[in-house]
Amino acid sequence: MRDSFIFYRSFYEALCDLTNEEQLIVYQAIADYSLNLIEPKLTKTPNAIFKLIKPQIDANNKRFENGKKGGSFGQMGGQQKKEVEKKPKKTPQKQKENQPEPQTITKDYSKQDFIKFVEWYNSTFKKKYKALPSYENKFRALLKVFSKQELINACKNAHADTYHIETNFKYLTIEFILRPDKVNKYKEEVKTISTNESENLQKTKYLN
Hints:
It contains twelve helices and no strands. The protein is mostly helical.
């Protein structure tokens, strides 16, 4: 049990795209898990967002527990403290593992993945988006929860959606499709669309 916890800017940005009701659910889940280690029972988008945040909370809780153990050692006497000080310092790699990582990325992520995605999106849907850092942050966060294929499916399904076709894709921007709730909505198997639309969904190296 803790009396406080760290709330990162990355948490805030991940919640900005949710509805007020969903935000409240996730805020409560973060507080319950950080302060009392109560595992939340969430579904759909709130569950997906919490999965992004949970590893950072776990890392912070681990550091907190390690700090408590270190404090107990010092209270047991000066001699024990000296012995601890004589121990070899941890390697830089070990120290890095214990530091907060608000922007922790997936194991398989590389910047080239993001660049290829933007190139694929522009080529497939006849757009001219640039590989901006703000887009990359959203893309990198999505890959912690969704697979590349789910993201590709979401893009194709959204462009095959009747509403977006009727509105001439006015609201279907790359920022729109990089929202976790939209990927979750459109990620299922690609829908059947017209022949003309199918011709536009050309295959690229990104899918290989």
